[in-house]
Amino acid sequence: MAKTQKYVYFFGGKKAEGKADMKALLGGKGANLAEMVNIGLPVPAGFTITTEVCTYYYKNNHKYPKELKAQVLNALKKVEKEMGAVFGDPKNPLLVSVRSGARASMPGMMDTILNLGLNDVTVQGLIEKTNNPRFAYDSYRRFVQMYGDVVLGLKPKDKHEHDPFEVIIENKKHSKGVKLDTELTADDLKELVQEFKTAIKEKTGHDFPDDPMEQLWGAIGAVFGSWMNERAIVYRKLNNIPEWWGTAVNVQSMVFGNMGEDSGTGVAFTRDPATGENVFYGEYLFNAQGEDVVAGIRTPHPISELAKENPALYKQLDNIRKILEKHYKDMMDIEFTIQQGKLWMLQCRVGKRTGFAAIKMAVDMVKERLISKEEAILRIEPNQLNQLLRPIFDSEEKKKAVESGRLIAKGLNAGPGAASGKVALSAQDAEEMAKNGDKVILVRIETSPEDIKGMNAAEGILTARGGMTSHAALVARQMGKVCVAGCGALKINYADRSISVEGRDDVYIKEGDYISIDGSTGEVILGKLETKPSEVIQVLITKTLDPKDSPTFQTYNSLMNWADSIRRLKVRTNADQPDQASNAIAFGAEGIGLCRTEHMFFGENRIMSVRKMIVADTVEERKAALSELLPLQREDFEGIFRVMKGYPVTIRTLDPPLHEFLPHTEKEINELAQALGISYQTLKAKIDSLHEFNPMLGFRGCRLGVLYPEITEMQARAIIEAAINVMNEGVKVKPEIMIPLVGHVNEFKLQEDIVRRVADEVMKEKGKKIDYLVGTMIELPRAAVTADEIATRAEFFSFGTNDLTQTTFGLSRDDAGKFLPLYVQQEILPADPFETIDQQGVGKLVEMGTKLGRSSRPNLKVGICGEHGGEPASVEFCHRTGLDYVSCSPFRVPIARLAAARAVLNERTTKTTKSKVAAKPKAKSAGKTKAKAKKKSTK
Amino acid sequence: MAKTQKYVYFFGGKKAEGKADMKALLGGKGANLAEMVNIGLPVPAGFTITTEVCTYYYKNNHKYPKELKAQVLNALKKVEKEMGAVFGDPKNPLLVSVRSGARASMPGMMDTILNLGLNDVTVQGLIEKTNNPRFAYDSYRRFVQMYGDVVLGLKPKDKHEHDPFEVIIENKKHSKGVKLDTELTADDLKELVQEFKTAIKEKTGHDFPDDPMEQLWGAIGAVFGSWMNERAIVYRKLNNIPEWWGTAVNVQSMVFGNMGEDSGTGVAFTRDPATGENVFYGEYLFNAQGEDVVAGIRTPHPISELAKENPALYKQLDNIRKILEKHYKDMMDIEFTIQQGKLWMLQCRVGKRTGFAAIKMAVDMVKERLISKEEAILRIEPNQLNQLLRPIFDSEEKKKAVESGRLIAKGLNAGPGAASGKVALSAQDAEEMAKNGDKVILVRIETSPEDIKGMNAAEGILTARGGMTSHAALVARQMGKVCVAGCGALKINYADRSISVEGRDDVYIKEGDYISIDGSTGEVILGKLETKPSEVIQVLITKTLDPKDSPTFQTYNSLMNWADSIRRLKVRTNADQPDQASNAIAFGAEGIGLCRTEHMFFGENRIMSVRKMIVADTVEERKAALSELLPLQREDFEGIFRVMKGYPVTIRTLDPPLHEFLPHTEKEINELAQALGISYQTLKAKIDSLHEFNPMLGFRGCRLGVLYPEITEMQARAIIEAAINVMNEGVKVKPEIMIPLVGHVNEFKLQEDIVRRVADEVMKEKGKKIDYLVGTMIELPRAAVTADEIATRAEFFSFGTNDLTQTTFGLSRDDAGKFLPLYVQQEILPADPFETIDQQGVGKLVEMGTKLGRSSRPNLKVGICGEHGGEPASVEFCHRTGLDYVSCSPFRVPIARLAAARAVLNERTTKTTKSKVAAKPKAKSAGKTKAKAKKKSTK
């Protein structure tokens, strides 16, 4: 005979029928209440009606399974026995709360009813038990009000209508000549109960049910009903919570913190959720209900005071704190009530925390042997590391500034950290102001490669246009600069050197005025705010702090070591300069994944040669200009090779459209014309002729080297000469030469042939052999789909996912600002594909490219050097796809290291789950297993 | 015991050992010589040494197979017997020619030796046989000269050196005081022979071999050697002829057309290769050698004269002509020699022909029951149809113009046909000049949508910039206009309304001057040339010619009917206007595959409303502007639906970047500002704000409709209202609404929802239901790789391969002019991917998109509407990929119909070949089969 299905789970006393890992069936609240009972904590007895009842209810036209009624009555009996009170008993009534409890927290989305079981008869029992008529009638009044609203539907019809119950209360206070609810007497409250009931009958046509059992079923139905209310539906949609999960219903004995001075209530965290320190952290109030603490009418006391006020109680609570941490192995958020001296636990769940705290707690717990290093790593979102790395505002000072109206606009949080300085509206101004010792915020409509030096001189960069991967954002992150990008409210007027702000007529900023930007939040704040580098930076980069003196650094360092011991993916950095490279190594980079040779072209002593090269009319002229650049490029590479000490260095040959290097002002054009000995007009015409309609899809990448092989020749020579020179100093060197924007294997062949020929020449000249690789970026869809052909020649691939995203989507990141934010906001796209890799589309091409590439060259080295290389979800994708490394800006290296470790751990989990599923495919639980798998995929 | 391998194939008399289908083994020449023998034609006896010997020769260090010598001697014996002469005999010497003969024709690439077998002894025999010492010594002299050059290597060391033999001849003429070779006497020639031999010995160290057998082997070695000469290698590379094919060597008895007035020589085609007419076409000369006809020293006579001069011979030849056509079932190109009254056939091969002739001959031969209609279709390159469709220059007049230096430049042959008219340098000028009754050629640096009306008014369009799919080229082909694009030599000066031409200082063209362009060749010719529409156009479009009166039209029509009976692919057209649509139907279109709604936006009474819509600040303003456009768009669609009479019409919602519609001149901006009641500055700022860095990847396609749903609403309403209105007139209507530039299924969903909602509204308002489809363009790589998701909603796909090519390659067609021509020229890319679809890259995405799309919607209708839809190789690709239809500009419809039929036939051939290969995988011929397959793939 089939066993009757269990729909109701009792908890209370020393034993619960459920436990913590039954969240899917009991909801988070119910599972944790059961768990607390099981570990011996004092929990008011109750029972949980499972989520399966909710599913049944919606599948069967709002009917319950026939077994439910008996199971509820049975559980209620147990509760009565445990609590020593009887539901509906005139003398000793049991009161209960009825609350929803879904698998995932949906705060405030569904309904709750307290004090259920009261009626004109049982209220007398309550008076007798408490000897407190006002408390009893206040409880009764609150119950009727909640029940009338939630179960019987007496509520305002729209936003403009007042709550009908509050209207009655207001009238009552008015007629009694009092101002506060608390001034109403027991009799007043008794009158209110009757008036509420009358209003309910009049306005809804329903009688208020006096029968507690009727009350109970009404409340249960209302809670299940609230699963489908509009708020809940919207919330689920926003948070990807599937409808079929359903909610559980928790029916629990009431305990009261407002039964006098020996009663009270509180909330607490088992550790400090802001700093992560291992101290008991929370607040409490005597003679109060939970909502009093929340409402802020009375100021609660810090939990530390309880140690003095009631040492026994504090000791009991602190003991519970320890039990909970030991049991849950995490920082918990708890709610408790003291009823007439007895402590009851009402709720416990994993506590929310700042990134800083998350890291500290995770690392501390490993050291306390509460959790493993793997668990620690899985608990920290990689981006939370930013909170350890970036310069920071003093939080108090910032709060004051915001409160005084100095927060004038918000942009994209493009480069985390805090920066404060004088506004400079051009790169040149920024450099000059910095030379004078000023801290500078460079504010531009948008930035271009010409602004690099100014960006480097500035503390932070603020732009009015451009997204998360705009030039400003990319370069800022690579430089480790604070950046707020795409702050559209700023109206930057270069002509009169000022900024105004849309919607803020009171604000007018002149160049040289102070401004502060928070690149972690995108906030732009008027005036100056102090900042300081983080301790980790002080240890690793400025080297102004001894690691021994910094617990924060030690925390960071432990975590990173654990991550390194777990991850498979290598982490490289995108760096063009020795100092960037050296920072990246300090952050744990294991090579350079992208060294852009063109960033070196903007140096003072170079740009003229570069321009000469571009406007050259003949091969000879171009070669002459290139020969001026050769020694400079060689020096650049020598510097980088020295710093990288044998780590691989991937150097990309010239990539950007040539017009990016050309002068645009009349003055500069004149200078160049003079240097070249040609007329202004001739040069201007030449510059104009280089104009392109779609430079992104134009004459760039390897197309430059195909048309002008002498450029590739010069760069190959500079790289190989530098490599041999540095090798001769006794330093190991591993150059990897990377050809950009290859679409057809023939382009690669032509460029590779040049590189190999020049390398042979140089090695012969220098009498020394070196190992080097020649590979390519895969940044065009065509390269991805013909990767098998390309890999017949290329020794490595590096996915340039910035450009691959642009071409795969047909989306220019410079122009997408008009519609992309709306696309993300309206969830047309799940996320900004320039921020996290689009796994369904772009990712499919990455997978295809990797697979095809390795089909013709099994040992093909594959990496990624787009900005996605430092974004945790993308790093995880790269791990799953079998890439060898990711490369990202120096300050993202620790994030990538952590993300790579998490990828390994998440993969293990998935595999375990999968193997479990695979192990019992035909077991009775097949249905449930399916449901689990579905849950996974929906997450 | 293994049979000895056969390396030598005899031909002559009534029987040859080879035949026509042995080209791979015997080369084209050898196979056809054998075939002619077999069908009873008089061929001088000889033998062919197979290509396998060539392969052996190169594999075995320039050695021959050991069996070869005996087989050659044996064959030579048969030749001697057949010709009644003996090789090396002093009295009756057999002379032979030794010629190469590869599988594919490689004209002039390899070496030939004539008159072999002569020496001081045999020359006497020749004198006796012919009684003509001068002839004998001239033959001897020629032989020594050729042999010295080809076999013994006495030739000029470089281009600057004179031919050493010619120097000796010049000296001889000088010393004899004569000017022409023909003035040299037998004795002079005899002296020359000795002087040649002395020179050979002195300069090469080799004795000239007197032994005919030594001569023969030397010549055979030289011919095999010439397979690897530099010219031949380059030629093979250019023509994709694999090296391993090798060449055969033909050794054939000499016959002489210069043995007196009863001898002669000639070349002929079995039909007119220019017009295709079924007449004998060729030239002959009596008492002459082949080279005399070619050299042009004497003027040959048309073959028709032979009928009078020597009716018997003519009859014999004409009979051979008939035998050949009946046997080969094709027009043949023949060479013949008459030696002392006897006719000998020296060569026959399939003759080259013009497109016009190819079509006429193929159709005629079907009617003559020589070939099947399938064979006819396979014989015509679809693009050859252009020669039946386009207006044409009188060829004589054009030739004269070119000869007089009026050909001033060449651009891309972007829109076939011929046009002549006055130069207009702006669209407005073009319109005005056309209104005054002038024929106009619109000459622009490049064109934009604003120029549409001017382009329509012009006879032809000539641009200095832009490729085969530039705006000018696309629109021209759609309009059926002649177009030469990307003619970089033109320097167009809008300021002083003139054109100069690079490298032609003598040319200066003012606006209003006459110019002529040939869009089939890209030629630009100064001054006026007369043109006329083709007969097919006169029948189908201008309707000025009765089909009965045009044999050319009937030819066209037969061919098209046959193609239609074979093809599976439907052919639609890209058309925005009723007249275009109606032309397309005349050309056989079966629907519209792409109706661009934005082309309608440039009409005089519309552009202002469009501009109002674009610069609108509020939804209300935008809706007001759109409501002005609604009735106009509805009328457009009504016009098209009426013409299309129930054929499906795919209408694309608004696609281009909005700034394309905005005014750019101060005057226009002022006008619009006044109309809108805003200031010039405000409007200018608005226009500037719409500027994009990469408009191709910017705010366009469905992104417009997502941000401004009211645009899609208006267009959907216009389409459905028009459809119902036309249906109410009793005309069938099949609208297919197409959403452009979809990258994510969510974009499609949003747009589809709007279309369906509006359609429901309109149908309710009108009280009538209509069937319509909603589908999408697949023109982004992301759409192709996520086509399974998109097809859950989209009812049809249309591959927009223009944009798909741009994004897959990361290549802007507007900017690629700088490097793409070089890429094609240097064979980095096999072809311009905008001209013919890149099957390896873009094609892979098309295949993937089709497969994925049909995986979620098996009955998904799939088409292509890029310009590739009318390009034969791309059409064939579409057929193989399983598309339902191609869509192309009206004038390409016949080409696409023919290409679609050829695709079916080629597929049959491939399948037959494959099944044959599959049938005997383990047979002895496996090696050969492989070779065959390889040959296929190399072609």
Any key phrases for this structure?
alpha/beta, 37 helices, 939 residues, 34 strands, homodimer, disordered C terminus, eight-stranded parallel barrel, Acyl-CoA Binding Protein, elongated, Dna Ligase, domain 1, eight-stranded mixed β-sheet, 6 domains
Architecture of the largest domain in chain A, CATH level 2? Alpha-Beta Barrel
Please give the share of residues in helix of chain A. 40-55%
Largest interface: A-B, 50 and 50 residues
Determine the strand fraction of chain A and express it as a percent band: 15-25%
Terminus-to-terminus distance of chain A? 37 Å
Unreliable stretches covering 5 or more consecutive residues of chain A: 917-939
Strand order of the largest sheet of chain A: 15-25-24-17-18-19-20-16
Q: What is the name of the CATH superfamily of the largest domain in chain A? A: Phosphoenolpyruvate-binding domains
Could you say how many structural domains of chain A there are in total?
6
Number of strands of chain A: 34
Description:
Chains A, B: This is Pyruvate, phosphate dikinase. Chains A, B: Mg(2+) binds at residues 779, 803. Chains A, B: The active site is at residues 471, 865. Chains A, B: It is an enzyme of class 2 (transferase). The structure is a homodimer of 939-residue chains. Chain A has 939 residues and is an alpha/beta fold. Chain A folds into six domains: 8-130 and 210-349, Dna Ligase, domain 1, CATH 3.30.1490; 131-209, Acyl-CoA Binding Protein, CATH 1.20.80.30; 353-386, no CATH class; 390-532, Glucose Oxidase, domain 1 (3-Layer(bba) Sandwich), CATH 3.50.30; 567-657 and 692-914, Phosphoenolpyruvate-binding domains (TIM Barrel); 662-691, no CATH class. In chain A, helix 18 links the parallel strand 18 (440-444) and strand 19 (460-463). In chain A, helix 14 crosses helix 21 (551-566). The relative contact order of chain A is 0.06. The interface between A and B is large, with 50 and 50 residues.
